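Hey team,

Filing this mostly as a record. A colleague (T.K.) asked me to run one chain through the structure pipeline before their review meeting, and I want the input and output archived in the tracker in case anyone asks later how it was produced. No errors, nothing strange. Just documentation.

Input sequence:
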Amino acid sequence: MNYRREIDGIRALAVIPVILFHAGFSLFSGGYVGVDVFFVISGYLITGIVMTEVARGTFSVADFYERRIRRIFPALFLVVVVCVPVAFWVLLPADLKEFSQSLIAVATFSSNVFFWSQSGYFHGAAELKPLLHTWSLSVEEQFYVFFPLSLLLMWRWGRKWVVTILLALAVTSLALAEWGVLNKPIAAFFLLPTRAWELLLGSLVAFYLADESRQQLSLTQSNVLASTGFIAVAYAVFDFDAKTTFPGLHALVPTLGTALMIISARPETWVGRLLCQPAMVTVGLTSYSAYLWHQPLFSFARHLGLTDSATVPLVALAALSLALGYLSWRYVETPFRRNRVVSRTQIFLVAGCGSLAVLLAGLSGHVLNGFIGRLNPEDRYLASISLGEQGVYVGTRFDALHHVSFSEKDRGIKLLIIGDSYAKDLVNAVYESPLANRMQVSTHRIPAGCGNLFLTRSIESQVTSSYPALCRQDGWYNSPIVQELIRKSDQVWIASAWQAWDAALLPESLDNLKREFGNKFVIFGTKDFGAINIKKLLAIPVPQRYQTQNKIPKDNRLINRQLAHTLDTTHFVNVSDLICGASGDEGDRYPVFTPDGRLLSYDGGHLTVEGARALGSKLVDVPVIKNALSF
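Output structure:
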């Protein structure tokens, strides 16, 4: 394929929004679509090269993968080699163990699968994961395991059949992506089947441009189409945000925009002239390396607290990403791409040895639990706390009891627990206490932000969930299964991280529930233990560390007081007061640790095993629960 400067310009349009998005600038709330722009460009370029070689009969699998290795591995290994010692210095053992696991994923090009499994509410902030961005490399490499050979096999059927099959696959993948964002949003974001259509769109563009019978566009037509494409990408960058369902139909905006620019942004169009500016081309040429550097820089800076209070460090880190990207491109990427500098044998040796080294480093960190032995014995408990592992504990029992039927043979109290992750804490509190032997438990999930309410009118306009469709999917209280469980229950516990808007509607909801199902409902208040910062706690000497207290957050107090005032107090349980003692003045504080030096909460909101035991031991004496057990 002939080199096109404007393609590098489009790469610049992709990488700059991605970097600024990950820097946290709200203006670029949709900057994540830069990855989708990269996918379309990659599909176009790779297909063009493979198609040309297949048509000429010169395609070689060895040549293809040699080019991929030269393109991907050298700069990637450089970034990983730099990240490993920095991670050892910056990260706590629990985080270092997860980082080590991500090294294994990088070495096996399964990062997208790994981060899919490690993503979600309980697995920590994405911006703190240094190698999170390598998921997109894994998607591409997984795609290119199958694509060249598939194209080679299909070629015998003729170009029209190839295009038809690729189009059908792209439509199928897009349909799966649209279903996925409504039902399995995290999987849809990370996994190849729901991303393949973006790469295939680039492939279809390559076939279109290679068709000599196509009608040539006039300059006016090219200007209109290129401008439309440019505006579409810009619109996505500045208008999309975390609530945009993605990568379903919404992803057509930046991807079709990219396709239009590839097709029509000739150098003589105004968009083409912009894309061909030397600065744009330079950023585009270095975009891969800049992309590799930006996430580790931001992640480690956040772990060190360097970006907590100022915008300047973020701007500096964004600029540093581009500078390091240029240096990596010039002194690492470019030499390794030249056959006369590094031979095929050498590049395959580098790839093999490098992958093995990364794999061994990852296995070491995983097996040795983030090298926790380097810390003093009294620090190892705190340093080993993993958000992901704690999150598994919080959710496992609740999820296993989802819509479980009650048994008439079991004489235990029939208890249905409804709510979000705070309801999951209640399930654990029951099972960490004597209540477990006196109760049958079933659960129903209403995600945080959906409003745990039973109303006669729609509240979708007030829903604060990132994925409102998930609220409809779980059905609030509308499912016949849920209503039947309520009718069969002796008690129904309702718990949520109540916000002001749904707390205000809760009395109305409770009246509706009582009218429909009887007076069997117990409302549990919200809880908040304040910020739990493991590094800051580790900096406090023992035994003073275990005397640490956090101030009761004002919002937590106000919402619980509001609920206590507006609800029947005999059926309202203030969870915060149960665990930590009655709250009074604004100066009141929560203990962070149990008397034996264990955290009550690992993230400020959810309970550890010890926290669940503390709550469970108090639930036994709550009058409304104690009275139910006495029957």
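Quick notes for T.K.: The chain has a mean pLDDT of 90. The first strand starts at residue 413 and ends at 419.
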